[in-house]
Write a structure and sequence with these properties.
Elements (H helix, E strand, L loop, with lengths): L2 H36 L4 H8 L1 E6 L2 E2 L3 E3 L5 E2 L1 H13 L2 E6 L2 H10 L4 E7 L2 H4 L2 E3 L4 E9 L15 E5 L3 H9 L4 E5 L2 H9 L5 E5 H11 L2 E17 L3 H16 L2 H9 L4
Length: 269
């Protein structure tokens, strides 16, 4: 290697070192700003951009969510959802999903939230977050008037129907020894089974139980299987969405709007 070539190589190495140093100093903010720009938006941020929230709902649970015969989904939850969205300044889109599949739809991002009279349970809390509760209720047993059943003990070892994947099904399994608890695709089928005496009892949230009793002449047992709070189902890690929903629900509690919905839709003793 001659002297001239050595000088050229030295110069090239010096330029290369400067370039690498410059990349190290100037690249960090660039990488940081690029990372911020490319960071995935939260569900709440996406909702804000779209101006709309998608909601998984199973309209087979009168009076919370059901079809009115003209293709419209109505009920307590639907009216409440409408009020919540007005508080948040957004619209909503209902996505009809069987109840047992709503959790998967929320988890995979098919919908933004689940709102279908979800009870807060320890099992669900392992995977999901919940809004502040908007209603407190309980799981009740419904029987035919000529059944002779008057208390939970009478149903030990009997056949009980409930909605598939519901907390009512879980409550029956845990609190009625020896019961054959049959999960149905929807609650209309569960109560059809009861009416045709294909089962001994059906279990549902107390307002739903009272609604079916009023319509079809069933009897609601006085003993409650479990007491629960109802809330909106949210994928974990979306604190900003939880907070926005909580503020809206608290406002509707404080201004009496939720009480108005209770008077409108729910049969209260």
């Amino acid at each position: 290697m001659n002297r001239r070539n050595a000088i050229r190589i030295t110069a090239l190495l010096f330029v290369l070192i400067l370039a690498l140093t410059g990349c190290g100093q100037g690249g960090q903010p660039s990488s940081s700003s690029g990372g911020a720009a490319s960071a995935e938006k939260t569900i709440w941020e996406k909702i804000g951009e779209a101006g709309k929230i998608t909601v998984g709902n199973s309209p087979d649970y009168e009076p919370f969510e059901f079809e009115d015969g003209q293709g419209n989904v109505i009920g307590f939850d639907i009216d409440l959802l409408d009020l919540i969205c007005k508080e948040l300044g957004i619209s909503y889109e209902l996505v009809n999903i069987s109840f047992e599949n709503i959790e998967t739809a929320v988890q995979t991002g098919q919908v933004d939230i689940g709102m279908s009279c979800f009870s807060i349970t320890p099992e669900r809390q392992l995977t999901f977050d919940f809004s502040t509760p908007y209603l407190s209720s309980g799981q009740a047993l419904v029987v035919n008037p000529d059944s002779g059943y008057t208390k939970i003990e009478d149903l030990h070892g009997k056949t009980i129907t409930a909605g598939m994947g519901t907390s009512g099904m879980e409550a029956a399994e845990e609190n009625i020894p020896g019961a054959n608890v049959v999960g149905m695709d929807n609650y209309a089928l569960a109560f059809m089974q009861l009416k045709s005496k294909g089962c001994d009892a059906a279990v549902a949230d107390l307002p739903v139980a009272r609604n079916y009793a009023a319509k079809d002449g069933f009897i609601v047992l006085d003993e409650i299987l479990s007491y629960e709070d109802n809330a909106i189902l949210i994928k974990k890690g979306n604190d900003d969405l939880v907070q926005a929903l909580d503020v809206a629900i608290r406002t509707l509690k404080e201004n009496g709007k939720i009480d108005e919905l209770i008077d409108k839709w729910l049969i209260v003793d």
